[in-house]
Amino acid sequence: MGIYTSFKDHPHSLRKKLLPYALYALLFIAFIHLFFFPTPTALPSTTTTTTTVDHTLIPKSPPPPPPPSEVFVETEDNSNGCDYTDGKWVHDNTGPLYNSTACGTIKEGQNCFSHGRPDMGYLFWRWKPNKCHLPRFDPNTFLHLTRDKHVAFVGDSIARNQLESLLCLLATVSPPNLIFSEQDNKFRKWHFASHNVSLSVYWSPFLVKGIEKSEETPYNRLYLDSINDVWAKDLGEIDMVVLSIGHWYLHPAVFHYGDSILGCHYCNVKNHTEVGFYDVFGMAFNTTLKMLVDRRIDVIVTTFSPAHFEGDWDSLDSCSKTKPFEENERVLDGMDYEMRNKEVEEVEAAKKIAKNSKDFRLEALDVSKLALMRPDGHPGPYMYPFPFGNGKRDRVPNDCVHWCLPGPIDTWNEIMLDIMKRWNF
C-alpha cells in the first residue's frame, strides 16, 4: 500500500528510475541497426577527370529549365558508332566546363562575357543525338589519347576558333605553354608538358596554295592542284590534322589548275569565265585529302559552319537571338547544304581510296546542322567591349560567323573526342 501510495503521490519518481533503462535500450537498438544495416556510402568515381564547373561567370539565377522532357539527361550507350547529325539542343543546367576569365587563350572577339554580353542562357544547352549518347568532354582522356603526339588545326578563323575552344577545355587540367607564334598569331603552337602533347594552328583558308587579295589585286588567286606549303612542310612532325575552311571561298577569286585558268568567281576580270565555287571547293579538298592519304596522317574534317546574319553586318538585329532554333524551325539548305555536302563527298571518296590502309583514319566532323541551330552562340555586337556602354543602341559591327567561348563550338570538340575514342587513337 505504501508503495502504491508513493507512486501515486510522486508520479515523476518512476520516470526518473525508468529513464536510464529506456536510454540504454535505445542505444542498444541503434547499435544493432547500424551493425546489420549500415548507411550506404557513395561509390568511388570511375572517371579520372579532375575538372569542376566554375560558375563564377554564370548568373546566380540561370534561366528556368524547360519542361522535363526537354532537359538534358546523361544516358549510357554501347553502340560503336553515332549519327551526331540526328539530334537536338536540349537545356542543361550544368553549364560549361570553363569560364572566359580562367582561360587565357580566347581571342578577344570571342570573349563575349568579358565584353558585356548580358544574357547567359546560351551557355546552358547540350547537343543530344537522338539514337546515341554524346559524353561530356573529358580533358584527361584527350591528353591520354594524344600523348607524345602533335595535333594541327589547319584552315581559316573557324579552325582557330575550334582550337581555342579545345585549349580552354584542356587548360582545366593541364596548362598550355605557347612555344611558337608568328605573323600576327596566324601560326602558333602550344605544348602540354603533362602529356607531351602539342597543338598548333596554321592559317590556310584555302588549304591549297593561295594568294590572298590585296588593294592592288582585289581577288584571291587559288592553285587547286598544289597544297599550301605553309602547313604541308611540317607534316613530318604532325600526327593528326583537323581541317576547317569554307567562308573564304565566298570571296572573289581566280581559280588555277596546273597551267590553266578554270575561271573566276565574282572577280570582274576580262576573259575569265564566271564559275561557282562549289566545285572548286571540292577540288581543293580532293587535292588535300589525297596528299594526306599518301602520307598516312590521320584527318578530321570539320564541316562548314553556317553564319547567322539576319541583315547587314551593322544591323541592330543582325544575330540577336538568345536561344537555339526549335527542331524543324530551320533546315540546312542552299549554300550551307552545298558546302557541307562537298566536304562529306570528298571525305567518303578518300575513305574508299584508303580502305585497305590500317594505319590511316579519316572522318567528317559533321557539325553543319548543329551549328545552324545555334543563332544565339555568336558574339554579335559583343565582338567589341561594351558596344552599348553609353546606353544607346547604335549601329555597330556584328560577328555572326565565329562563336563565343565558352559556347556551342565546345560541342565540336566533344564530338571530335568521341570519334578519336572509337578510333582507339
From TrEMBL:
Q: Which GO terms describe its cellular component?
A: Golgi apparatus; membrane
Q: Where are the transmembrane segments?
A: 21-38
Residue span(s) of domain Trichome birefringence-like N-terminal? 81-133
What positions does the domain Trichome birefringence-like C-terminal occupy? 134-418
Q: Does the keyword Transmembrane apply?
A: yes
- Recorded family membership: Belongs to the PC-esterase family. TBL subfamily.
Q: Tell me the protein's name.
A: Trichome birefringence-like N-terminal domain-containing protein
Organism lineage: Eukaryota, Viridiplantae, Streptophyta, Embryophyta, Tracheophyta
